[in-house]
Predict the structure.
Amino acid sequence: MIIDCHNHVGVDLLFYLHGDFPYAQQLVDMTREGGALGVTHWIVFPFVSYAAMDVSRFRAGGVGFGRGLETVPYAFENRRLLEECHRLFPEEGRKTLPFVIVDPMRDTDAQAAELVKLRSEYRFHGIKIQSTIIQADIKRLAHEGRVFLDLARQWDAPFLIHSSVAESDPWAQAHDILDLAEANPDIRFCAAHSCRYDKECLDRVNSLPNAWFDCSAHCIHCICAVDNLPNIAPRSRRFDTDYSHPARVIADLASAYPNKLMWGSDSPFYSYAAEMDGETVRLISAYATEVAALAASPPAVASRIANTNTRSFLKLNDESLLA
């Protein structure tokens, strides 16, 4: 059994209209490609921009609110995902572990009401947040977004949260996510993207019984580390390993944090291409490359980080529950 703990299904209108890549993924295509590589189960959630945002600003890459196609953040996207998994493609959907996605800052009571409705109709296993693209300070989860903490407690559902260490990204700092985990010890948290290899944050994850991290988009993050790009922790704080060999990085992370690392591809965001500051940025990997970096570890290690740890995070201790 291989569980890919980080996948987007649906479409991102901001990425599409602004000319960025990737911008869409369909459930059947994801399971067909990943299944051929040995992946058996997928945690899935919607893409990040939502129809309640001001879509008219997307062509210019702008982020705005109040003039959307919908009124409640992510109400359409969450329902669309769950209907795809449970009604449109039930065979493929049985292999998925859907998460709903939330905006921790805007119209949170209305979002919560929609989630309660969804919970009465469909199964889902956790709550996803990507606060960078929607420019919502993750610290607001403890304030306007507290209703989501309450629902997580009620449903015993974990959070999977996009993390950053870049100075240009004040919305999703890894240390803020870990502050939330420390302040809410009865709720489980995963900080995505290996905390951008920030050893201080990774060590802190290791010390918190309710925290995990995933290695989603691992191979392009290794490229970023080799090139010393600002989206990765600076060398003075960076986990010590050979980033020119992604499989070695996974092996070293799994050795240093044996019960905390979860494997995920971030499909389709294992690649990224966009125009930034007049230049074309291309960070290109592939699903097969992500799986190969995992499979290079001994089977027991690969099983731990792509099965056992993920089921622990989900509280699915009995593997037969996924059969």
